Protein: Type II secretion system F family protein
Organism: Nocardia terrae
Amino acid sequence: MTVAIAALLAALALMMLPGRVGAVRRLRRLHDSGRAEPPRSAAGTAADPLGVATALDLLAACLRAGLPTAAAAAAVAIEAPEPLASVLRRASDLLALGADAATAWEQAAAGTTDDSVVGLARTARRSARSGTGLATAVAELAERRRGELEDAAAACAERAGVLIGGPLGLCFLPAFLCLGIIPVVIGLAGRVLEGGLL
């Protein structure tokens, strides 16, 4: 009797595991929508800082694989972060309609202030005019973006190390004075006063 109850409780616990529920939900969404939805971040969380670099790497890989620029831009725009995604979509649409590559990228990036997006449009225009390979230049843009993010992270870490020195000094300086300096001064003062030096 107790074995049957234990087995029933174990089966119930296995059915209630969070991983199983999440997997069932994802499978239902996949079945209902026809394609998997990307995981959504909670409201107020920052976007992935490496999302632009990853999208640029993906664009470079698509171009190296032989996809036309319009098809590669359309494929990457699906998962790219927002300023880059809209520019890739516009450029893809203009290129698919037969626009000149330099004109398409210039019009697609018009009004955008994001450095990575402006750099991509400039590189694509330069590649269209000179005939150089776009994949290598886009890969270099992704590497530069990663380097900028690494430099920013290192600067933040160094700044945090400097800023933490103030509170630590305020905490440890009184303790050092009370436990290290004052007993030594009191001990020396006692010896001086007992010895009759003053």
User: Anything to note?
Assistant: The radius of gyration is 31 Å.
